[in-house]
Design goal:
Interacts with SMIM26. Pfam families: Mito_carr (PF00153). This is Mitochondrial 2-oxoglutarate/malate carrier protein. InterPro entries: MCP_dom_sf (IPR023395), MCP_transmembrane (IPR018108), Mito_Metabolite_Transporter (IPR050391). The radius of gyration is 21 Å and the shape is globular. It has one domain: Mitochondrial carrier fold. α2 (about 15-45) runs antiparallel to α10, α7 runs antiparallel to α8 (about 215-240) and α8 crosses α9. By secondary structure, the protein is mostly helical. The chain has 10 helices and no strands.
């Protein structure tokens, strides 16, 4: 092992390429799961006001959107979803990959589990802060179709939404709900790292799986289930708070208004309403995780073959 310690680390892609591939992978996955994200947001907002019984199930919500808004309606907010990935996922995966490689020993020994979790939480919180403006625009755009025509904001695209929010409500509104968004990112990354690692190892130890895409898919879906259960209460607070129209004196990054939202949801809709929209959230999170990493691995493989090994 002494000789191995002097062995240089294998060549890897530049930091800029790591960030680029992370963002492209997330954006590619979003194209496929955007309808599920729309349904999830609509379900989480369905407990407000006179529309408390608007959607009975996730499938009822999807059918209602298709009936009232057409097929294009399920892709409402796609531009915001893509921008969110271009900011949040680019930052998250880029930072995670760079820190992971930096903390990997020269002999190829990866960082321990605790360090992986810490790296993931750091990357997730940083990415969430960068991606919050796109998140606010996404929540508002996906919520627009459920409002009466006279109350709809009518954003034409994500950039129109960002410009109008800044002009009409102030630039700080773009970071409304920043704390729960970052808290969700920390929970998601910690849960994903732990559950994915454990479930993958359990599948491999069973003797029925090999270390291939099918194993990664199954482990990701199990991880998605754990992550969904852990992160949904934070996510619903983030969703409700992000779409609210509040006067300037109520805008705050402190926990008071966020806890107020949480308490009102539990008091008015019940404790288990914190997991409202569980099916589309899980259906989105699992495939999005799988697709993101499949795309990411394929792009890295292509880069290694044509740029590092040529």
């Amino acid at each position: 092992m002494a000789a191995a310690s002097g062995t240089p680390k294998p060549k890897t892609s530049p930091k800029s390429v790591k960030f680029l591939f992370g963002g492209l992978a997330g954006m590619g996955a979003t194209v496929f799961v955007q309808p599920l994200d729309l349904v999830k947001n609509r379900m989480q907002l369905a407990g407000q006001g006179s529309k408390a019984r608007e959607y009975k199930t996730s499938f009822h919500a999807l059918a209602s959107i298709l009936r009232n808004e057409g097929f294009g309606g399920v892709y409402t907010g796609l531009s915001a979803g893509l921008l969110r990935q271009a900011t949040y996922t680019t930052t998250r995966l880029g930072i995670y990959t760079v820190l992971f490689e930096r903390m990997t020993k020269a002999d190829g020994t990866p960082p321990n589990f605790f360090m992986k979790a810490l790296i993931g939480m750091t990357a997730g919180a940083t990415g969430a802060f960068v991606g919050t403006p796109a998140e606010v625009a996404l929540i508002r755009m996906t919520a627009d179709g459920r409002l009466p025509p006279e109350q709809r904001r009518g954003y034409t695209n994500v950039f129109n939404a960002l410009i109008r929010i800044t002009r009409e409500e102030g630039i700080t509104t773009l970071w409304r709900g920043c704390i729960p968004t970052m808290a969700r990112a920390v929970v998601v990354n910690a849960a994903q790292l732990a559950s994915y690692s454990q479930s993958k190892q359990a599948l491999l130890d069973s003797g029925y799986f090999n270390d291939n895409i099918f194993c990664h898919f199954c482990a990701s879906m199990i991880s998605g289930l754990v992550t969904t259960a852990a992160s949904m209460p934070v996510d619903i607070v983030k969703t409700r708070y992000g779409q609210m129209d509040l006067p300037d004196d109520q805008l705050s990054w402190l926990c008071g208004p966020l806890l107020d939202v949480l308490v009102k949801v539990i008091r008015n809709e019940g404790f288990f309403s914190l997991w409202k929209g569980f099916t589309p959230y899980y259906a989105r999170l699992g495939p999005h995780t799988v697709l993101t990493f499949i795309f990411l691995e394929q792009m890295n493989k292509f880069y290694r073959i044509y740029f590092l090994e040529s």
